[in-house]
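[Q] Does anyone have a clean structure-token version of this?
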Amino acid sequence: MINSIEHMAIAASDPAALAHWYCDTLGFTLVVASESSKTYFVKLPNGGMVEIIAVDPSAQGASATHTVGFHHLALSVENFVQASQNLQARGIHFIGPAYRSADGGTQFDFFCDPEGNRLQLVQRTRPLGS
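[A] Here you go.
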């Protein structure tokens, strides 16, 4: 059976630039860089991985793999306020308003990467599914 999600992929008009933005701005580490295929893998310290591929303008239809298609990528943090302030200091503009549950256990807000992909910064007292 399936054990976990290994990675998710984002199609980008400039995959190299986007990969470097994920590393420089969000703290990912570049683990694979193939300039010939314009494919980059970036990884978070706890193992989440994103593949960044080149947009193929001729890709169309349900089976196309190089088109836009996900709603958001959620990035978990231990301290929402500190992480959001750190990102704002790096020029990130949050969509807002930030959500905070009544008990304060869950907080999140959305922002976009340079290609316009929506990212979510989220803090939870208990991880989802636990």
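[Q] Thanks! Anything notable?
[A] Helices lie at 15-26, 80-89.
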